[in-house]
Structure formats: structure tokens, C-alpha cells
# Entry
Amino acid sequence: MKKICFLFYLLIAINGFAQDRPNILWLVCEDMSPYLSCYGNTMIKTPNLDRLAEKGIRYTRAHSNGAQCSPSRSTIISGMYAVSLGTDIHREKRPVPDFLYFPKYLRDAGYYTSNNAKQDYNNLKTPKNVWDASGKNATYKDRPDKSKPFFAVFNTGITHMSRVATRTTEGRSSRSVPMDKVIVPPYIPDLPEVRDDISWNMDAVKRMDAWVGQQLKELEQSGEADNTIIFFYADHGGTVPRGKAYVYETGTLVPFIVYFPPRWKHLAGTTIPSVSDRLVSFVDLAPTVLSLCNVSIPDFMVGAPFLGKAANDAQNLRQYIFTFRANQGDTYAPSRAITDGRYKLIWNYQSAYPNGTRQDYQWQMPAQQAWDKAFMAGTIKKPLHLKFWEPVETFELYDIQKDSLETTNLASLPAYKDVLNTLKKALQSMLREQKDLGFIPREYRRVLQKEGALYDVVRKAKIDVSKEISAAEIASLKDPKQLATLLQFLSDKDPVVQYWGASGICGLAKIGLIKNVPKAATNVLQDTSVIPEVKCMLAEAMVYAGDTQRGLDYLLQQLKDGFGPAAACLQNVGVKATPLVKELQQLLTLKSQPPKLKFYIRSILINCGVLPYDRLYDANEKIES
# Structure
């Protein structure tokens, strides 16, 4: 009898221990670099997050992998890089395999999962088995069984770019940071609109901090504070120009704080409180949460737990952080970056395009428009400010410990040759290991995904992803000695390889390294088997290299058909689009034109000098992203 009773109580003890797991609470804000006072921001105070950091772990080297919301969140939810899923183009929803959502593994293990309220995973549909509750009213407080542990996400849009995407500074209420106290980053000209946007955004940061305080108060009132590990982070970098959507530190470095209540400090695997310079990225979030909750990490995840019992195992100590971007609105301009925490390499692949390529959503920031107008007026004189409007350099290398704002490119200096080559090799290896699908242009992805999720399609069709990456690398070099290779790419059977052949030729023509586009390339425009994105790049190259009318005619026809990449090409050629002015003006009058396409038509007309800059947007058109 005693033996039976002992076994009975042992079973209770074992079951109780199995269910005695921490709650996980994520507090997530949007579009914010480390603007908190605990990170050294002297313009404002953020007392609630400062207190959380004082009691927890404040990470100084935490990065979003994607530089925009949807690729960032696609990475977070899957524990895989969005480029491996083809979900790296911002707001291009694609089919994604149902197993790539980590909260479902928490649910299977007995956790209650809630999401309030943003998903934005760049997927067509989130499976029903991911969240117990998802929406603006979702909360851990509504779980039917209060003995269940929870994983709860709360998102706030207070700091989102929409705060400053107002097209004008008029009507903004008074703010707590006076204009003369605003700190303007050196890579942006010091213009009134720039100061106004930064000041206006700092108020949003203060409001966001108050929101965090309210969330912490509700947790305390729920009685769950002593049992809950809290994560706070922003989904990517901030809203100043050259921030969000770029792989500079201003686009991917984020505030990141984790708090452990005393009961669960033993799970941290590090000193608490502390400031950590450990390399952490969003691909690591899913495996970290699963590790803390004692749930097995699926094999498909490529991130590593940075907290928990295995956090300090050699294989989990990250050597590099990998970041990426795909597009600037309708302009497809992929970049990849890698950093070891000291040096950072950015590899830009679309060699014909500048960082300052207009984009329909972000150009609603008065600061961005002011910088653009000043450049067009010729009043921008500093090389660092002009660089934004010139075709990108293929390689950018920065010492981010000495130059955290990435203002001095070291890539061409002999003293840094070994550093450059080491990071190049590491990046090249990373792209191939992860089967980076981000070199497939946008419209062609839509063709491929008719067969299913891109993640599955490339595997079933045995597409040579490494070959596509190599083509993009060669195209990025702006080397006229590679012209023969680029022409060979045009005759390849893979449309992606063809695209990068065309892109490389366009880049050479843009900066005058070739004076004409070879007939072997121009003949492609008549080849019905070639995808339009290839032809658009070649047509743009023809505009630069003297076959202007033929190139413009092709791009105009594609624009009339509503093809976004053609609009991007025509915007990029600047005043060379002038012969199309009358037809573009006619297109602008058509009510059937979608607002985004009208934006690009107006942008082209502004470049041609026939439309004033203040007509870039129509007051009656709403553009969101």
C-alpha cells in the first residue's frame, strides 16, 4: 500500500513539474532603432523600459534580419530567414508551408498562444493551429484554463512610420523635443523637415514607453508577473531616411530587452541584470522561446537559442549576423549584409540603382521629400549626402565599432582587403547554405508560386539556387570585362540567370562603361519566351546607351499594361524619359490607374521637369505599407 501511495504522489509530482513552465510575454513596437534613454538617447526619457532594462538583460547587438516589417516577421514566426522562403519582398504575400510557424509547437506542448494583433508574415494564410486567439482583443487573460502557461504577443503601432508619413509637417501638435535640441545624423542633411520628423517621432517613442508601462501593470494585476519572462523589441530599425528598408544599422539594429522574474532566472544562462554584446538576430527568437519552454526545436529552424540551458553551447554562439532587403517599393534592389560585431559588409546587387530611388510609401515622410528636393535643386554639397542619390557601390565595408552610423566605406582600402574577403566568403557561404531565393525577381516569383510555396518549388524542381546567386554576384560588379559572361546569362534556360545578365548590362550602361547594348541583348526584346522583367532591364540599358526611343517604347507599353517594374525603370532613367511626357500625362488622367502606379507616373514627370514636386502625391489618394 505504501508503495502504491508513493508511486501515486510521484506521478503527481512529475506531472506538476512538467506543467510548471514559464509564461512568455512579447511586447513589440514597430519601426524603431534603439531610441530609448537606456541606450543613450538624450533627447527623451523612457522610464518604463529603462527600469525593465535595469532588472533584465539589455542587448546592444540585436538585429532584425529583414529591414522591413513583413520579411522581419516572416523570419520571426518561422525561425528561418525570409529569403529562404521567398518572403523577403515587402508586402508580397506568398504560400508558405504550414509547419513553419513556431507557436504551433508551443500549443502542441500545452501552451495557450495569443497574438494581439499584427501578423504580417508575408504569407497568404496563417494555419488555424498557430494561435488560440489572434486579433485586437486577443490576450492571455482570456485563456479558459488559467493553470495553462501562455505565450502572448502584444504589438503596438505607436512608433510605426505612419506617424511621420504625413507628406507635410503642417498640423502636427507641439512636441516635447524642441527643434533646436534634435540630433540630426550626419548622413542626412540638416533640414527643418528632418528635424521636425525626428522630433515628432521622439514623442511617439515616449508614448510607446507609456504603453509598455500599461502592459506591465496589467501583467502585475493578472497575478502572472512572477511567472512571466518578458521580451521587448522593435520589429526593425527606425523611420529616419536611410533607416527602415535599408541594411544599414539604422535599418536593422533594434532595442532588445529580456526580463526574468526571480523564479526563472536560472533559465537565462547569463548574468542578470546585465548589458550583453552577444550577437542576436530575429531568426534566433523562435528556438530561444522553445528552449525556455522546454519544447524541442524543429530541425528546419536555422536560428540558435541565445537563452536557456543550451545558450552557451559552442554551436549556439553566433559568429555572424545576416541581414537582407529586397525592394524599394516597385524597385527590386536586393542587398545582403553580414557582420561579426566589429566589421560589417553590405553587398548591393542591383548595380544601376541608388539608395534614393523613390518609393511610394516612405517618400510620404517630409524629411525624405525635403532631402530629395534639395538634391534636385543642387543645394546638396556634402559627398556623404550626395551618395544616397548615386548608384550604389557594390561593396560597403564599415567598422561599426568606430563608425556606428556607417559613414566611411572601407571596402576599397588595401588595409582592409583581408577583412573584406573574409566577410565576402562568409556571406557567399551563408547565401548558398540557406538557399537564398531572394535573387528571383518579383513578377517571376508569382509565376513559380503557382506550383506552390517557393520553399517547396525550388526543391521539387531542383532549381540551381547557387547558380542564380553567382549570376547576381557577377552582375553586381560593374565590370565591363564581364560583358561576355552577362550576355551568356541572357541565353541561359533559367529566367533568373537571364535577369541578372540584363541587370548587369543595365548597370554598366548606367555609368557609361558600355557605350551601346550589343545586338544579342537588344534582340531579346522580341523573344516571347523571355520574362518581361528581363526585357525591362535591357530596355532601360538601351535608354542609357543611345537606343533611347526603342527602349522607352518598350517600357511605356509595359507601363500601360500596369507592370510595376517598368515604372521603376522609367523613374530611374530620369530626364531621359522626356520623350514620353505627353503619353505619361494622358495615362495620369485615367481613373482606372491604381494610386501606386499614379505615384510613379507623377514621379517620372517630376524628373522630366514638367510637374512640380508638390504634385508627387494626390491629396485624395491614400497609400499604405
